[in-house]
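Researcher: Re-running this chain for the archive, since the previous output was lost when a drive failed. Same request as before.
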Amino acid sequence: MRRAPSIRSRLALLVLASVAPAALLALGLLALEHRHDRERLEGSSIAIARAMVHAIDRELVSMAASAQVLATSQRAQSGQFDAFREQAEEVAKLRIGSNIVLSGPDGRQLLNTLRRPGDPLPMHGNPAQLREVFANGSPVISDLYTGGVLHRPVMSVDVPVFHDGKVVFDLSLGETPERFRAILSEQDLPAGWIGVVLDRGGTIVARTQQHERFVGQRAAEALVKRAAQAPEGAIETTTLEGIPVVSAYTRSAATGWTVALGIPRESLTDPLWHRSVLVGGAVVVILALGLALAWGIGGSIAGSIRALEKPAAEIGRREEIHVPPLGLREADEVGQALVRAAHMIAVAQHRAQHDPLTGLANRALFLEMAAHNVEMAKRTGAPLSLLFIDLDGFKRVNDTFGHDAGDRLLCGVAERLKTAGRGSDVPARMGGDEFAMLLPGTDADASAAFAAKLAAALSEPYAVGPQALEVTASIGTSTYPQSGASAHDLVKRADEAMYRVKTAKRP
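Model: Regenerated structure tokens:
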């Protein structure tokens, strides 16, 4: 027969045929992976920005709904400002907005929860918004502007107050940029990322970094223009502090506000550079050492495989295995040794754990499985029952018809035990004419009923040659945890119960 190739020759060919193409493929895949990583990062960043926009929309819608409910107050509609102030201050305590303002058609503030009654009040801080409310009679969400009382950037939701079908007042629910900064902070962005909220005009409302420095300023022009053209996307730009970033953004269709996430470009390019250096260095090392090491490593591997023959024959396995020809001499030798070892161990394991006459589990295996099932019952709380079975009149069968007939009767008993039980039940021969059966998931009542049926089945005549041999069965039951907390306790209690049944049969 032609000899199969050796490991040495295969490794030498493998180094020559695969290293160079594999290196080129690795570099190509690295570039492709980097592009896909960037696309995935941009997509996930847009999803995060979308979630932030939804959170801000919920805040603005909540403010608008609260303002509209407050605007239905008869006190506000009828101009009872002192009485309405009490309602407004109660709403302000709910922390929906930072303050509540009621203004007249001329823009003069009539009530402001930030000022005490009688204090002078300024004009409405956003005249254009006030005019829009009186002209259209519908709620308006502002951009960022300078508040007349706070004298710093604020935004507001303005709603009309109607009386007799006419707009008589403007009710404003104001909010500071700090509230929107808190919404950004809740997202726990990665280190170095910059989150920013823009109003419809591209003015910065809130920022995760240097918030106080940049609030009220216009965002990077490239980002503002791109957000005006498309509702969401990603663009390379530079932040106001000069950091090159990839900005993933989403603009709200409901409010026109935008959330953008700035991802530093170096965090995207550095991993590609580092991985490229590593791959290039690895390729150089592999090309330099691969052929030199292949021959020596191949011989070492072959020697190791041959050395495994003897240990493999001694390793215990519980199932039979089959190893087909592997096309390599050394591997074929190891495979055959493993097959032989597995077969020998399986035979020895079966003999050690099963009764040679009936094929049932022997006492040792039964006790091991009983202990395992008790532990399972402890963890799950499921019931577990055990039967101990003794044949009445078996000695008479042996004495009258011989041990061969007795052995055949015992085999018949084993078959009836296997037939009567479920697939999960474990029948065993404990020795002589004593048997046992493990019933997982069976409580005391069910085990008693099963024992009665089993006793009847075992008492039916057995056809052994020309004779019909008859024996009866005494069965004792025990149940976890009522009868005991261990396998030893369950076997002992079932054995005692069996003897009580056997004693009760005697005249």
